Structures
1.
Amino acid sequence: MTIDKYSEKNKGDFENIWVNWLADSMRIKPEEKDVEEVQNPVSNYIQEGGMVFYANKSGECIGAVAVKKLNSTDYEFCKLVVDEKARGLGLGKKLVQKCIDYVKEVNGKNLYLQSFHKLEIAVKMYIGMGFIDALAPHGMLVVERTEIIMKMEIK
């Protein structure tokens, strides 16, 4: 298994894995802005100073996450998803760590996330990694389903 930065080989994978997860596992219809973002990761994340990472195993995408630049110092990781057959293997944590490493690499100061209480296992993982409750920073578009905002100070 590898975790790779966006490339054309993963074109379409982000939308497929994330929209299916949200609809099937969470029983939530994605907001229009969400769909547009995962359909166009280059223009929505990469060209704006962020990145998209894909977990690939045997040529198949089994996880993805985006890092979005919010302002000159703050970033947000968003749309973290791990395929059902790859859960419980620590892949979510590895994808979040890639986001942390990326923000360090570009000299960011804070990494934020949005979540909701139904994702209890993920929220516990975030706390265990050092994320704390926070208010939304300048530049963060808080989506309707958000119940929790957390941040990690990058050192």
2.
Amino acid sequence: MSRLKAKIESLLFVSHKPLSIQKIAKILATDSEAIKNSINELAQEYEDGSRGFRLIKIGQSYQLVSDPANGKIIKELLKDEQTGEMTKPALETLTIVAYRGPISKSELDMIRGVNCSLILRNLMIKGLVEAIEDKNKMQTDYRITFDFIRHLGITELVQLPDYEKLNQNQNLEKLLHPELAEQEKNEQLQQELNKDDQEIIKDNNPEENNDSENPS
């Protein structure tokens, strides 16, 4: 398999929604025609070989799905995931979504330091998290569902423990928005410079210092 096809396959695998040729081409910085040819080759390989995936076309977009022939065993897996206990990583991710949502996957990945694709998928399967489209930022964000809020016995997110404090945590803000940390650093530097300037002015005016020390 060529590197281009491998990259396309990876993108289709981790994406929870169909991807257009234009979107893939932009991410990979490759022309659309090369992406289209590679996708057609992938689709043919899935059809010809004994693979567990199929590539479907939805409008002008493509999505990687499981082979329908494996539907029964997949249903068994999903049933276990829906009813089984949540792992510690899943609880951590759910907590972040609850306190920081709506939040993008990239922000989640940055906070946890790992790829959260599979965890998000499982939380969505359980009906605890849902995806929403942010048309202004042209991205997918995640938030907890009303079912989860109802399950907690609260009526709104602000009723979560320490919600105001954790929702506006400064350390997280600096992690998600490095420009804020840079701005704070520049402000501190400016304060230090102003302080140094005042010291220089004071040192260059000995008479003023003497007057202050020996009042008439």
3.
Amino acid sequence: MLPHLETSTRKETMSLNPIDFLQKVDIKGGLARVNKFSVQITPPTALHAAGADVISFLCKAAEFPGKGWSTVEDRIYGIEVLKPYAAVYEPITLTFYNTNDFAVKKFWETWLNYIQPQGTRNMRYYDKMVGEIRLYHYNETAESAVVGKENYFCGLNEAWPLSLQETEINWDNDELYEFQVQIQYKDWSRRAGAGQHLSSYDYGRDSGGGRQGRERDF
């Protein structure tokens, strides 16, 4: 005798009407766009790198981080099953406009040199070389980047520059000077608060240390 199988009588339907689609999207605030964002960069305290707010302001493009898993194969009755055992956080890329005084590029060169000073070649202790980077996304109707009014927040915990991209200069190109920096980090948080990372920050608001980023107009 075959076992009794319970079946659901509820039918899942999906409307193919574009009006229904738009109505459902409107309930969620509409479709998000990628061009309304801001970045806050906080270097290591001992680095004494000035102008981090200006550097953040000149970030042309950024990436929200992803998350994956390192896996191991486990054979069960002849079938190989992948099982996760450790989280993997890939580096993100930040793209910056450079200025004529090269302050933006020098900022990252200074941080990289701080990790391993060229004079001594001694690597800095990890907890002394890392900083914090925060990414904010705003609604398409936002006219300026006001921390606390964002749609989404992502904080990179224990962030540090992994590499600085080489850049080409030539006589035939009069485009704006841009370059990229790869950022490595320990992990990331969607919110900073009680029991979370990102030092004493609470959802992007400064705790009194004067490290709040400047407001950015779109």
4.
Amino acid sequence: MRKIRTMSSDDKLVAQRRKMIVEKALQVFLKKGYERATMRDIGKACGMTHGNLYNYIASKEDLRHLILMRDIDGAARLRDYRTKLGDVTCARVLSECMAHFLRGMDSMTGPLLFFDREVYKFPQEDRRVALAAEVAVVSFFEELLREGVEAGEFQVRNPTLLAHDILMYGHDWAVRRWFLKQHVTLEEYIEHHVRLVLESVTTKARQAARTSSTASAAQVQNGIDGVK
């Protein structure tokens, strides 16, 4: 994260004020567009004078960067959550982590809409950061799927693609919940998609196990018949 100028030496106050300013700036950017919005618009939304705003933020570019960095550690939070689950089955880990991720996406509507509209205007460095954050989430779920395969719980043809699907379930809820909430609650949405993923990976594993078991039984029977 790049260093952002401030005129205050009170780090706690700066953090509190910036959090509020970022929230208000995001609302202004979504309403007016990043290019049309001015620092005066943002100051008015924050209930601050134009001059006071500059005590904590130097430019719109600073605000854009802070919005980007606000939710950049999604994969790290997922890993912390995974650690807290302890020693449980791969299916339990996947279902719990998916639910945790999807609940978190319920508060991401504003940032995702902003990124979708404005990301092509971001400096190259910020675009790389945004992409890396999404890749990290995909990598996290890919690891969970591969662990399940290694443990014999899952059978997945393309873990990377399925992990990307999980990411997009979160994006879909965040940007289309205005429509989805007319038909399902967040918890129903989570239950549906967790079940969808688990059935796709565990049913195949059970089918493979049954096929293997049937083949083994046939081999044994053939061996017995051969002895006879």
